[in-house]
Structures are given as structure tokens and as C-alpha cells.
Design goal:
single chain, about 210 residues, alpha+beta, Alpha-Beta Plaits, 7 helices, globular
């Protein structure tokens, strides 16, 4: 069984938000919900400044705090290493939202329209609302699951395939010959905030 992980090359990422938008389209997330985000910051002193994009998502931790605090077992890790939420057993207590050190979880009480109050939902938004309620649910915890349904059909996560700069690589961390494993070894891939002890399965290649 594979243990899936992701490598994000910060030298390639230029902060175009294609990952965020492809994630929203694929998962039909409502307003304000971004399972894939892009943080931006600046370093240095003018005129020698650098603006850096940092894509973040669920880190699919090997030691996930969210699993530890879930009182119903709704959040759990699959054999392939992907941490998922069973919306039917989630009680909506939001303990996992508070426990996640990466801010990767959301809970939506009810679908809110992208358009001003009073306007009827378009056919697409009706479809998106239905898909969100069926697949993710309201009043429960939601998060990135590496697009596990796409993995099952031989595809990669939507954010990986949408990236125009090929900054993201997805694969089996336990396979020493996989592209992700080679990139991590060759370029000294680093986890985000490893001192937290969650052992993320998302690695970053540093920009310099």
C-alpha cells in the first residue's frame, strides 16, 4: 500500500492561485473555504526585497493532532496515509479545527451564496451546493483529502495537475524510486514547522 505525499517546489511557485481555484472547482467549496491556500510574504530591505509565495493545504500528518482529539473517530488515517473525515459520524464539535496547527480545517454551518442576497442561485451554484452537501456536509469538519477519488481513478490531485509551473509533485513516499522521494532526498525537502511533531507528508523545496 502506498503512503501518499506531496512535494512543493517554492522556486517554481509564483503565486498564481491556480491550485486554490482548481481545488474550489473540484470540491465545490463555498465562499471563504479554501482547502488549498497561497500565503505570501516579503523578505529583505528595499531595494533588495523578495516576495515569496507559500502554498499550504492539509499536511496529511503521520501524527495528526486532529485524529487524537476527535471524540467519535470521524477523523482517521487510511492505510494510504491520507487523513479523512467521515461526515456521517462527525458531531461538529470543532475540536479538530482547534487542534490542527496548520489551519487546514473548516466547518460550514450552511451553504452561503457567492452572490448578493435576493438573487436566485444559478444552475451551476445549485449543482455546487448539492455536491458540497452530499460529499462534505454542513455543520461538520471538512478538509483536503488529496483528491482521493481522483487517485482511485489513476489521476493526481486537482491542485497538482492544474499548476502551470509544475511546482507540485505527488506520489508514494514509501517508494524510494518515486519522484517525490527522489526530490526530497536530492533537494533536501523540508516539512513546514517540523518542531510541532506532526510529521507532515507535504514537503517543500526551498527557494534558495
Amino acid at each position: 500500500m502506498a503512503r501518499y505525499g506531496m512535494v512543493i517546489d517554492l522556486k517554481r511557485c509564483y503565486g498564481c492561485y491556480a491550485c486554490s481555484m482548481s481545488c474550489k472547482v473540484k470540491n465545490h467549496t463555498p465562499p471563504g473555504v479554501f482547502w488549498a491556500r497561497v500565503l505570501k510574504g516579503e523578505e529583505g530591505t528595499f531595494p533588495n526585497t523578495i516576495r515569496q509565495a507559500l502554498p499550504v493545504l492539509c499536511m496529511q500528518c503521520d501524527d495528526p493532532s486532529c485524529v487524537e482529539v476527535c471524540p467519535t473517530g470521524a477523523t482517521f488515517m487510511q492505510e494510504d496515509g491520507i487523513v479523512v473525515v467521515n461526515k456521517d459520524t462527525c458531531m461538529g464539535c470543532k475540536s479538530c479545527l482547534m487542534a490542527c496547527p496548520y489551519g487546514a480545517r473548516y466547518s460550514v454551518e450552511s451553504w452561503e451564496s457567492y452572490f448578493p442576497d435576493g438573487l436566485p442561485l444559478s444552475e451551476y451554484e445549485e449543482f455546487a451546493k448539492q455536491q458540497w452537501e452530499e460529499n462534505s456536509g454542513c455543520g461538520v469538519a471538512t478538509k483536503c483529502d488529496f483528491c482521493e477519488d481522483r487517485i482511485g481513478s489513476g489521476k493526481g490531485p486537482a491542485c497538482v495537475e492544474a499548476c502551470p509551473a509544475n511546482a507540485r509533485t505527488f506520489g508514494d513516499l514509501d517508494d524510494v524510486d518515486s519522484e517525490v522521494s527522489i526530490l526530497i532526498r536530492r533537494h533536501r525537502g523540508q516539512q513546514l514547522n517540523p518542531e510541532l511533531g506532526n510529521n507532515p507528508k507535504v514537503y517543500y523545496l526551498m527557494p534558495r
